[in-house]
Automatic annotation (TrEMBL):
Localization in the cell: Cell membrane; Cytoplasm
Keywords noted in UniProt: Cell membrane, Cytoplasm, GTP-binding, Hydrolase, Membrane, Nucleotide-binding, Receptor
Similarity remark: Belongs to the GTP-binding SRP family. FtsY subfamily.
One GO cellular component term noted in the UniProt record for this chain: cytoplasm
Chief location bin: membrane
PANTHER family named among the record's database cross-references: SIGNAL RECOGNITION PARTICLE RECEPTOR SUBUNIT ALPHA
GO MF term (any one): signal recognition particle binding
Name of the protein in its database record: Signal recognition particle receptor FtsY
GO term, biological process aspect, one: SRP-dependent cotranslational protein targeting to membrane
Name of the encoding gene: ftsY
Function comment: Involved in targeting and insertion of nascent membrane proteins into the cytoplasmic membrane. Acts as a receptor for the complex formed by the signal recognition particle (SRP) and the ribosome-nascent chain (RNC).
Catalytic activity: GTP + H2O = GDP + phosphate + H(+)
The keyword Acetylation is assigned to this record: no
Superkingdom assignment: Bacteria
């Protein structure tokens, strides 16, 4: 790496850190303001402090089960250490959250595409699922930008054919990023679109093919059948496709994101998560709870509107930013 590349990379890292800090600001402000009020005038972490902390974690949409797990672990540390000062609570909480995220850390999958050689043999296929309105198509566009900017060949498949806006939106993203989009228009067979997109990816020697899918949950049987069919036809071209099933969730919806994760993990084998719109909510704790409860790695987080604001999720960077004063 030359000196120019080093400074360019350093600048990009600083910009990403600033975007992450800004994106988590509402969550940080809400949580730590309340935490400060809960411990004011107290010197030790007693039962009352833990009760207040439990309430704060639930309100941050960490989720009941994960919150209980965190509180129990802190209680064990208090019992073991005999005396824990309230000034140490930030550090202990940071360590426990980081440990939970460590257990479900994913280092492979689509995040490894940037490290793959230019000619791996066949494209890495990502099937993207999620309900309408969570930012699914926008996430695909930002992913395409990330890979394309790194010099990777990308093909998009507009297989959300039940919503005209989704097809048109993906085509616009393709033009904006400069990558081909395979589309048969609205009310066409989604599996056929996915098949053609994967085949085109092979023909072009693409590094990655990203397939958009319909975001409907009103009939789970139909959803399951549709996603299974899309998988089967893609496997006629690439036997192990898709190598990643990425579920996109809207972080600002809090507990509703948990429900969506539950439904989609029942309908198909979800292998990674992208959690969007964290910059517009004080419920950033949903990242912690969903990662813990579903044992699925969070691959990407959305912290702003810019194309570069879809970031690779790094658990240590996330926790450090969350606890940064």
């Amino acid at each position: 790496m030359g000196l120019f590349d080093f400074f360019k990379k350093d600048k990009e890292n600083k910009e990403q850190q600033q975007a992450l800090d800004a994106g988590l600001q509402k969550t940080k402000t809400n949580f730590f303001d309340q935490l400060s009020k809960a411990v004011v005038g107290k010197s030790t972490v007693d039962e009352a402090v833990l009760d207040d902390l439990e309430t704060l974690l639930v309100h941050a949409d960490v989720g009941i089960d994960t919150t209980v797990k965190v509180i129990n672990r802190i209680e064990q540390r208090v019992a073991r250490d005999k005396y824990v000062n309230t000034t140490e609570l930030d550090r202990i909480l940071r360590e426990e959250i980081a440990d939970l995220l460590d257990r479900n850390a994913g280092t492979t999958g689509s995040r490894a595409i940037l490290d793959r050689p230019d000619t791996p043999g066949h494209p890495f296929v990502i099937m993207v699922v999620g309900v309408n309105g969570v930012g699914k198509t926008t996430t695909i566009g930002k992913l395409a930008h990330r890979f394309h900017s790194a010099g990777k060949k990308v093909v998009l498949g507009a297989a959300d054919t039940f919503r005209a806006a989704a097809v048109d939106q993906l085509i616009v993203w393709g033009q904006r990023v400069g990558v081909p989009v395979i589309s048969h228009g609205m009310n066409t067979d989604p599996a056929s679109v996915a098949y053609d997109a994967v085949r085109k990816g092979v023909e072009l020697g693409a590094d990655v093919v990203i397939i958009d899918t319909a975001g409907r949950l009103h009939n789970k049987v139909n959803l399951m059948n549709e996603l299974s069919k899309i998988k089967r036809v893609m496997q006629k071209v690439i036997p192990d496709a898709p190598q990643e099933v990425l579920l996109v969730l809207d972080g600002s919806t809090g507990q509703n994101a948990f429900l969506q994760a539950k439904e989609f993990t029942r309908a198909t084998e979800v292998t990674a998560l992208a959690i969007t719109k964290l910059d517009g909510t004080a419920k950033g704790g949903v990242v912690i709870g969903i990662s813990d409860q579903f044992s699925i790695p969070v691959r990407y987080i959305g912290v702003g509107e810019k194309m570069t604001d879809l970031q690779l999720f790094d658990r240590h960077t996330f926790v450090n930013s969350l606890f940064k004063k």
